[in-house]
Write a structure and sequence with these properties.
about 350 residues, alpha/beta, 7-stranded mixed β-sheet, globular
Length: about 350
């Protein structure tokens, strides 16, 4: 059985190799991987910047954005059924995980498929806990590979609405910074809720943003402050300076959510009164979000299918590169849309 593996903390070690065939034990569902999405986390692990192999092992099987098909009937699933699966699993000894919320694990001792202490889905067969599987409707088909990044967006929106709901608040106007997969998916989710959306990125134009009914602003031509103030700002570009600036783009009781990652050692600047006066007097909030709860996965699948119905041609354009597993370098280097690795038709 072939798999895409890497040696965490070591660069230039990612490769395809034969690994032992997986057998489903009692209480597990055997699934065959159709394709896995590639994101910045995969690239960072491949570059030796992140990732932890399972205990006692040297290599880690990559892949956390999965689309698979059930191999045999069992545990409420039927052969041929399309599924995806959650990524983060409980640490087993904190309040959050005890309440089935490993996305909010308080210890950091969780495991994550294809990332931390648990092999991923970039292999032909996977034996999975049925409680971690999420059914994908036939109508969504191969677009189900977008479920994981969509679940990230759903969690962020759920938390933003919860924070906003601490007092009278209405989400009418939003800014999404960054037009990668997360930025585009967030744009479409907000448009599904009929929110007025601006999406800003480096490119001179973005047809996918405009197809959703959102407005696009190139940061080459526009200062973000020129776009006005917003109830919600999502930073999905992965730029720490932009993250700081989100506080100054908020209306009263506005909320800024950080989804991008920027590990660079740097100093960022922010006008003092924005932090020391406006954020306080106008009840503004800045928070970060990562991973997703099972309820966010279910919402992701439902909303992806709604988006497919509303913008069928646009959603098909989200995945711009599909290549076999042995061409993983192309997927890792690809920019300008979601890339996936195809293991089975």
């Amino acid at each position: 059985m072939i798999a895409l593996v890497t040696e965490p903390a070591h660069t230039h070690t990612t490769h395809v190799e034969d690994v032992p065939v997986v057998e489903a034990r009692e209480g597990e569902v055997l699934v065959r991987t159709l394709e896995v999405g590639v994101c910045g986390t995969d690239r960072e692990i491949s570059e030796g910047l992140f990732g932890v192999a399972p205990e006692g092992e040297q290599l880690l099987v990559l892949g956390h954005e999965s689309l698979a098909v059930v191999e045999r009937d069992g545990y409420g699933f039927t052969r041929g059924q399309l599924v995806t699966a959650t990524v983060r699993r409980s640490c087993g000894h904190c309040i959050a995980c005890a309440e089935d919320s490993p996305d909010s694990c308080l210890t950091g001792d969780y495991s994550e498929r294809g990332i931390t202490r648990l092999h991923g889905y970039a292999r032909e067969l996977v034996a999975e806990d049925p409680e971690q599987l999420v059914a994908i409707p036939k109508s969504l088909g191969r677009l189900g590979v977008l479920a994981e990044p969509t679940s990230i967006c759903e969690r962020a929106l759920r938390h933003a609405r919860t924070i906003g709901g601490r007092q009278p608040w209405q989400l009418e106007r939003a800014l999404v910074i960054g037009a990668g997969a997360i930025g585009l998916l967030m744009t479409y989710l907000l448009r599904l809720a009929d929110v007025e959306v601006w999406t800003a990125s480096l490119e001179p134009e973005n047809e996918l943003v405009e197809q959703s009914g959102a407005r696009y602003a190139s940061t080459h031509d526009n200062e973000l402050s020129e776009l006005g103030k917003f109830d919600l700002v999502i930073e999905a570009a992965g730029n720490a300076q932009l993250m700081a600036q989100t506080l100054g783009l908020l209306r009263r009781s506005g909320i800024a959510c950080l989804l991008g990652i920027d590990p660079r050692v740097q100093t960022v600047e922010l006008d003092g009164p924005v932090l020391g006066v406006d954020t306080i007097l106008e009840n503004r909030v800045l928070f970060g979000s990562v991973n997703a709860h099972r309820q966010d996965w279910l919402a992701a699948v439902e909303d992806l299918d709604r988006a497919r119905e509303r913008w069928p041609e646009a959603l098909e354009q989200f995945v711009t590169l599909r290549v076999p597993l042995d061409r993983f370098p192309e997927a890792f280097e690809h920019r300008g849309g979601k890339a996936t690795l195809v293991l089975s038709d």
